Amino acid sequence: MNQNFLKAVCAPVAATMFLISGPLQANAAMVPTEQVVTAASQASVAADRARVNAFLDREDVRGEMQRMGVSPAEAKARIAALSDAEVARLSGRMDDAIAGGSFLGAVVGIVVVVAVVLLITDLLGITDVYPIGPVR
Fold first, then answer.
1. Residue 93 shares a structural domain with residue 50
2. How many domains does the chain have?
């Protein structure tokens, strides 16, 4: 019974695959570099625009814009009016921004790093900032 069932199923599947793959042809041709670069840059610009629009769609960003008196619809319209280079630069600046941070957080971080460096150099006897260190 299994042999008959397999023959009944395999024959129509094989015939269907043959009929479907018959008219398909593969065409090979040289693709100009400009076409590849243009397609890649268009995909990159589309991804940058989508990323900026997704940022504007966040609830906390919308609330902050409304608090500042900017309507989200107006902000989206202005983003749509930006050139491709401006959108790429804006998307890059989003990467460079401190995640969840502020100017005060950056200043506190710098102060802590400087204090640790001064502590280490004081312990090594290079500076004399803190009243600790090697006995002289």
1. yes
2. 2
Is there a domain that residue 6 lies in?
A: no
Name which of 74, 72, 48 is nearest 60 in CA terms: 72
Name the residue range of residue 39's domain. Answer: 33-97
Do residues 62 and 107 both lie within one domain? no
Alpha-carbon distance values, 100 to 53, 106, 132 (Å): 18, 11, 36
Nearest to 60 by CA among 32, 99, 91, 90: 99
Q: Do residues 79 and 52 make contact, with C-beta atoms less than 8 angstroms apart?
A: yes
Helix (H, G, I), strand (E, B) or coil at 59: helix
Mean pLDDT per 10-residue interval, the chain, length 136 residues? 78 81 72 80 84 85 81 82 82 66 69 80 76 59
pTM comes to 0.46
